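> run fold Pyruvate dehydrogenase subunit E1
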Amino acid sequence: MNWERLRPPAPTPQTRRAAAACLEKLAVEDLERACRGATPYTAVQAIARRLAQDEAPTGNVWLVKASPGAPTAEASSAGDLAIAPRNISAWPLWFREGPGRFEVPLLYLLRCESVAGLRAAMYETADRGILCNDAETTASQWPKSVQPAVPLWLASGLNGIPYDPASGQEALAILRAALQALYVDNKPGFFYLTLHDDGGNLPRPSQADVHDAYKGMYRITAASGPDAPAIRLLGAGKALGQVIQAADLLQEDWGVACEVWSCPSYTRLAREAYEVQRWNMLHPLSAKKTSHLQHCLGPEPLPALAVTGYGQHIAQQIGGFVPARFIALGADSHQAASGLRGVQWMVAAAIKALCDEGRLPTRRAGEALKRYALA
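> ok
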């Protein structure tokens, strides 16, 4: 037996051509329009259907559908079942022969709530590809329907970048950038997206703004009212909808101006900020580099409140690089982590941060707790 064959194919110029063909398929206007008002789950389903049109043994993409899909009427009407479940595994890639033996873009749709399951998928794909986990579309006792060890494992593993897109637009932008990075620029590792199916009431950013979702964050709304106390609110995934509600309450009830940012990947932001910090330390005579996080926040020392649907430690990753008072909130930050109570906790935490900074009278922190019956 030729043991050299027992490994996935290596990237070649054909790989770049296959990726370019996939990117061309994802650049059409009707797909962008479909993703504009879609959830991350339905957007990725639409993307998979588009790529499946060219799915063949010698095609430009390898689509694995290991997820059963959401058994909802909405998912069925969106054409979820129309994705050809021809490939239920990535293992056949290890045994391809002939002229078709070159790496092709891999989109792996799965549903997994444990580190063990994700590690199995990682081994199967040789730590390559774009993995989309739709576990959040199902009910679970765990935050975001995955065991608490999952986000910690993803954040600590340097060979992959985890994302938590809030909208279909973000999912499309991240997936396009991932195809470019992995299969055109030949960067190592994998990309991981968690998918939810909650539309919420999110604003629709411009294409120029949402392009930065791949870098980890982009601005949704600027702070209005130059004389009002201001704070930055950062949110990821489904939590972004709550962050926007909290911004509205802060403005209506307390006269606080809010700058709202979508942060699909706190992990990417923290890793890049650390790399830039280390480079600047080792090159004291060179012009200093600026991370994307620093570029977005700028020198203005506004307090920042970062929210995630995972444990608080995921948002806390960027705390050391924020040039102002920083607060992280997660599913483990308070007893009422979702719904209106969660939004009210965000408002109370924001008011407390502004009081600690002297931007609001200290009594307002107690007034907020009393008003929302939080204490």
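Confidence is low (pLDDT under 50) at residues 71-82.
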